[in-house]
UniProtKB/TrEMBL annotation:
Homodimer. It catalyses: 3-methyl-2-oxobutanoate + acetyl-CoA + H2O = (2S)-2-isopropylmalate + CoA + H(+). This is 2-isopropylmalate synthase. Its EC number is 2.3.3.13. Belongs to the alpha-IPM synthase/homocitrate synthase family. LeuA type 1 subfamily. Residues 395-516 are annotated as: Regulatory domain. Its cofactor is Mn(2+).
Amino acid sequence: MSATEHLVIFDTTLRDGEQSPGATMNKAEKLRIAKALEKLRVDVIEAGFAIASQGDFDAVKSIAETITESTVCSLARALDSDIDRAAEAIRPAERGRIHTFIATSPIHMKHKLQMEPAEVVEQAVRAVKRARSHVDDVEFSCEDAGRSELDFLCRIIEAAIDAGARTINIPDTVGYAIPEQFGETIRQIMNRVPNADKAVFSVHCHNDLGLAVANSLAAVTQGARQVECTINGLGERAGNAALEEIVMAVRTRQDLFNIDTRIDTQHIVPASRLVSTITGFPVQPNKAIVGANAFAHESGIHQDGVLKHRETYEIMRAQDVGWHTNSLVLGKHSGRNAFRTRLLELGIQFDTETELNEAFTRFKALADLKHEIFDEDLQAIASDTRQKEEEGPYGLVCMQVCSETGVVPRASLTISVEGKEHKVEAEGSGPVDATFKAIESLVDSGCNLQLYSVNAITSGTDAQGEVTVRLERGGRIVNGVGSDTDVIIASAKAYIEALNLISRGGIRQHPQVADV
């Protein structure tokens, strides 16, 4: 199928999704997600913003070297330096794309760019031509198109297509649009731009008003043939359009959408869980498609109807999106080869035998505590192993916590700092509070605790608890994630990981606030 015969799914989990406060991923984690997206059969993977940092560049390049079935894309402002850096990062890709953008709304052009409309058009054309000198596949975005003037949008889009852009993206950058109005904007642009037939039109909608998916689908009904989205709706502020909702809406309502995607939907739930584990952003139970309650029925009337005929209350099959496919895969008697094989099936591959051995040791320890080992447990083990390989100055050696009715909880921990062990103790209002206070009595980080959440990785009372700790210091926000069958130990791991992340420093350049 050509690009116009199917709905192109452009996943930006690794770029816009990573801009969620605290959702920064390292190269190994990005590569794991990229492999999951490839397995999902995503058309285009926006792997990052190459010029934002050396880490972003390395991650984009690594993904370009690895992924073969999806197009690998890098974002770039309409600047020569950005475009050249993006081109260098995606050069190893079998299919590479440069995605360049410039703001087009009056408020952005006046206050952010401080440029006249004619200057913006000129810079856009120059950027597209430079990108085309590197690759054939160039996408151009009109940042803040949702608040841009229609006449100017038509003018700059026509010029960008003439300059060589083959995909034109109309982003609702601040989530301002309403579905009927946004769909009409897409229809008018495609009708009024003389060379519109030479490009695929795309949309990238934010969820500030909870309308990202609705706006995206409205655009599809009016001729848009690419949707930019993220796993779990992850992204800036309130997030982006959720990939799983876009894909299943189009597939379920074929009576309205005379088009479909290439997505292998059975990998949706595994991809969702992987992104949740790596970023530390739990999926709410009532989240469409991938939430734990998405196919659960509490009402007696609903239960009776489903038992008699599934389609009375279910418009999709749970199995079609990957539910109930991750059954027990390994146990305490499983060997190292079976462990390695299952990891490879999940897209997890360690660089060295030492890393694999470390992960296998953790698996065996967990298998002694849990009778059933699920894929989610293996994802957590892999993440925990990666964290240890890249840990900073702090480490948890051992801990003891006492929590008793009528007695003030107390925590005693041994923490390593640059390899030297220190014993610390503290009391608190609960065992977790005591644990965090004990750690802070040693490190005195000056961080503000913004979020503490606990999520069961799998079902059962022996499930691993996955704890997310979000810390802020000096405007920088990080998420630490820790997992263990003991949630107090998981809490300590998460807090220490967050401290290690904050200690590394280094702030990524933000693509939407940097001056052009």
